[in-house]
Amino acid sequence: MTKKPLTEYPEGTIVRVADIDGGQRARARMLAMGMTPGCPVEVLSEGPTGCRVRVRGSEVVLCCGLAGKILAVENDSAEGPHCNCCPGSQAKAS
Asked: What is the pLDDT of residue 76?
């Protein structure tokens, strides 16, 4: 399985952040919200104007442009980084 933008995952999917494909400001913004590589993220809803996700117990709404810069892999995939602060290999987004 390869990395895909967060905008390509359907509602209800739990993924892990694999990378942030953006400039320094976009990356800093995502890291400040807790979207670090390996962190599980649950896609709550998606639409033409944005993407609502749950990360580290908080709900965040991202514009499509910013959500498209977050590259993710399925949570159960062996690919990509794994979060050290989330217990277990099947960590949840909350």
From this structure: 76
For residue 65, the number of C-alpha atoms closer than 13 Å in the C-beta half-sphere is: 3
- For 37-64, write each residue's pLDDT tens digit: 889 999 999 877 789 999 988 999 999 8
Please state, as a whole number, how many other Cβ atoms lie within 10 Å of the Cβ of residue 88.
6
**Sign of torsion over alpha carbons 9, 11, 15, 18:** positive
User: What's the rounded Cα separation, in Å, for the pair 83 and 93?
Assistant: 11
8 A C-beta contact, residue 27 and residue 43: no
Distances (CA, A) of 78 to 3, 48, 49, 89: 12, 31, 31, 9
